[in-house]
Amino acid sequence: MHAPSTVFAPGIEPATQVGEELHSPRDHPRALEPITLALTAALSVLGALIGLNLITTLGISANTSVIGALVAMLVGRVNVLGLRKMRSVHRQNLVQSAISGATFGAANSLLSPIAVLFVFGRLDLIWPMLLGASIGLLVDTWVLFRTFDSKLFPAAAAWPPGVAAAETVIAGDRGGRRAAILAGGALVGLVGTFLQLPMSAAGVALIGNIWALAMFGLGLLLRQYSVPLFGVDINTQYIPHGVMIGAGRVALGQAVALLRRSRAEPRPDGAGSEDGSIDPSRITTTSEGQLRRGLLEGYVLFAAGALLVGLLGGLPLELSPAALLGWVLFVAFAALVHEIIVGLAAMQSGWFPAFAVTLIFLVLGLVVGISPVPLALLVAYCSATGPAFADMGYDLKAGWMLRRGARPFLPVEREGRRQQYIAQLVGFGIAMAVVALTWQSYFRDQLIPPVAKVYAATITAGLTDPSVVRNLVLMAIPGALIQFLGGPKRQMGILFATGLLLLTPNAWWLVFGALLVRIIYDRVRGSAAEAETELSLVGAGIIAGNALSDSSRVLGIR
Which of 309, 341, 516, 556 places its Cα 20 to 30 Å from the Cα of 481? Predict the structure, then answer.
């Protein structure tokens, strides 16, 4: 069975150009071109509103990048006012990057953090926290921009929603058999989601690493059936959280091992040449030195943001200078670790346990005795990081797939990534404005993200069961062992803990069913490469159909 440690972009050989040819960085469309900017801004408003409505009514956020790509395709069919330029797959990529960034930014990184302070009863801290959450969001995505396509976050890894977005754009550009397979997968995703099945679980299982996703499915199974099988709710005993702590510690150690290397390993022969003879899947465009600097910059910027939040939140009145400094350093560490763990889970599975990882730091804060107000600010600030980090990884993966045929690849890829980042900054800016203008009406109508209620209730209640600490320590051992044995490429410990932390009924059998289909089809098809390409197209379609269904729920809401 063909089971690579990383999944390359399916169906796009390095020599294949998608859409218009890119021969230099100057050929790549600009995010601030009038037509692109106008469509980006309009769809970012829509994306932000979709995100806010979904997070406050259903407690979820949808990946709207496929919606952005489809709208851009339709606009490109209109031959007036220069709209035909939107037929460019790279402009479509810019638009889908912005709308998805606005969706996750508004819902997960801005509204949810300030809702923690609202539920906690500190309305006077909402505006300072909105500023702090905005800083956290911007630093979060800056770190991803600086570290994407490194050995820690390689572009050649799965990033399943990014594959779905790219394949949607490619299908619209090329049509033919690829479009038919993708459309068939999308139909399956739509029908399954209509039947209340978590279809994205099956979609990612057709794209991601088999070993990692097997552990993910096992975690989902144990979470769903822990009570009938073992007579205990593993979540209330904080067993999944302990597993994630152990896996996270080893994952951080594995990341540090990368950062300690003084220089990048040499590229394979011909892989890094600028004359066009390059296979993007064989190299990383971000060196270990750049990765190290990006994470260090992130920690310093997170600390600066935490200090501002602490000062505006009145912590100097509650904490001594030494305690305030310790709080700032711990908050910055929590924010950075939070985004790394969420990013690793999202990279391999397409799902990210942002809520659960934030809850881990909340519990650790209670264990070490952080008082309620500083802990509420810590949790709110930490929760602003991670989701947008993961979402931007999906978008950059999509762009990487669309640019793989460019010659020369390296400068075009770097410029395209920069333009995507600019487009997402537009989306983030609009998300900040939308949240600033609407949060009072949402909270007045008691439309509050459910996760914020959990955070606030946990802070208020504190830890009354001494067994929680024991479980965290004991369950960290198997989490660490699984992560160590799986290695940094598979992230098996992180994925197992992610499954344990997610209560998604019936997701486990969709994961294992899709993995079984992969194994059987791989053997029957004969050609491992062709089987992987076709199944990845089906998986991308399922994810796209699920995302469209989730986004459509906003219709008629509020």
Answer: 516
Q: Quick check: 94 pLDDT over 90?
A: yes
Q: 6 near 154, Cβ under 8 Å?
A: yes
pLDDT band at 268; cut points 50, 70, 90:
very low
Q: Is 439 helix (H, G, I), strand (E, B) or coil?
A: helix
pLDDT at 28 over 60: yes
State the chain's mean pLDDT as an integer: 84
Q: Is the pLDDT of residue 457 over 90?
A: no
Q: How far does Cα 441 stand from its chain's mean position?
A: 28
Which residue has tokens 């490619």? 170
Query: Among 496, 542, 552, which Cα is nearest to 182's?
Result: 542
pLDDT digits 0-9 by tens, 383-431: 999 889 999 999 999 999 999 888 888 899 999 999 999 999 999 999 9
One-character DSSP codes across 346-378: HHHHS---HHHHHHHHHHHHHHHT--HHHHHHH
Q: DSSP states of 479-509 as a string?
A: HHHHHHHHHHHH-HHHHHHHHHH---TTHHH
Q: Please give the C-alpha separations between residue 369 and each of 96, 362, 462, in angstroms, as whole numbers.
A: 43, 11, 10
Q: What is the pLDDT of residue 20?
A: 61
Domain ranges of the chain: 25-265+274-552
CA distance 324 to 308: 11
- What is the sign, positive or negative, of the torsion defined by CA atoms of 421, 423, 424, 429? positive
Closest CA to 37 of 77, 97, 89, 124: 97
Locate 1 and state its tokens. Answer: 């069975």
Q: Is-contact 376 456, C-beta < 8 A?
A: yes
Q: Give me 558's structure tokens.
A: 């509020």
pTM for the whole structure: 0.84
The rounded distance, in Å, linking the Cα atoms of 541 and 166 is: 11
> 116 to each of 26, 57, 367, 375, 548, how far by Cα in Å?
45, 16, 20, 11, 29
Distances (CA, A) of 412 to 34, 140, 170, 286, 509: 21, 24, 18, 14, 41
